[in-house]
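Sanity check. The docking grid for iron/sulfur cluster depends on where the pocket ends up, so I'm generating a full predicted complex first rather than guessing from homology. Inputs follow.
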Amino acid sequence: MSRVYMNPCTTYELDTVYEKTAEILNGLGGMGSFVKPGMRVALKPNMILVKKPAEAATTHPAVVSAIARLVREAGGIPYIVESPFGQYTVPALERHYVSCGMKQLQEEGLVELNTDLSTAEIELPEGLKLKKLGILKPIADADLVISLSKLKTHALMTYTGAVKNLFGVIAGLQKGSFHMRFPDSVTFADALIDICLAVKPGLHIMDAIVGMEGDGPTAGTPRDIGFIGASTDPFALDLAAASTICEKVKIVPTIQRARARGLGPAELNEIEFPMATPDQFYIPDYKFAKTESSTTVSWLRNSKLLKPYPAFDKKICVGCGECFRACPVQALQMVEKRPVLDIDKCIRCFCCHEGCSPQAVRIKRNRFAGMVEAGLSFVSFLTSELPFKKRKKIS
Ligand code: SF4
Ligand code: SF4
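Predicted complex below; grid placement will be based on this.
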């Protein structure tokens, strides 16, 4: 039976986060059961964009700091590795390290910051969609990988957590080719699961003290959730964590596909919770991205007719071209320093939305889709099965 640790925590105060994380690790047998003296340990946080920790788009440095301290106490050497959105260059990495609070951890002597841009090819015998994969070499070379995800909504994948966090081991703009090869959320979920199985982190930690709601993973708003999560099983951790924000958790593509592939637990009652349980954190009115459909029927959710599309606010746009460079199918052109969309080419991956720091990319629906959605919402309301009877207050 998989175990998921959910330790209540409502602050990013360093010592509190350290204590709460240490309590979890004690339950797991201590950091010493994962880390032996001299081991090089890759910490893989979510550092998707050049954002401040308070914006809740990235793993908070207090959580990274707590894990780094525990790794050091066990004799390991922690280093941070991540390929954020956009071009994978040393100057780009430096900007992310400073903004996301990791540079400070390096200055405190807690962590090393990776600047090696090389990749290594690995085999994926268990892969369903991928049999070979090029990943960041410092991840491939690590004695242990610890994934440090952030709980957020996601415009394409509904929710991002333990499994989705590992997409950041793919270097820079190569991520776009995955969207091109796996354009819908279900096949993309299978590819994400393959990547997660290939990287095989020994431990998955989740920063769910404050998550992101609305138009995640970068343009949403922070929302208090109140726990630090951990498990050696990423599928169990995602099922538990997504259950705190999502009524119909099985529509989350990575969860749906993991269940279909027999990976991890199928239901919450197949998970052991030594600390708190998901119902203690359940937020019934958590807001999802505007891309979300009210229907749970896969083909309807993925129908191009109903799917929203990106729209570009020319007043907010600064003409940086990140969206243009990230679009995997060349559906965007820069005309007079502003993106112009060819909607027939657009596969609705929302990479442009995800990578736009000034938040100039909106999620739009046509009027017909809006009417269909209203009808589906009504049907969904009549047939909804609430997983928890009531929400207990987070103390
Ligand atoms: S829409 Fe955003 S990402 Fe695209 S050019 Fe404008 S500011 Fe840059
Ligand atoms: S325009 Fe945006 S949503 Fe459409 S394919 Fe390109 S990156 Fe994806």
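Relevant for the grid: Residues 367-383 form the longest helix (17 residues).
Also worth noting: Residues 385-395 have pLDDT under 50 and may be disordered.
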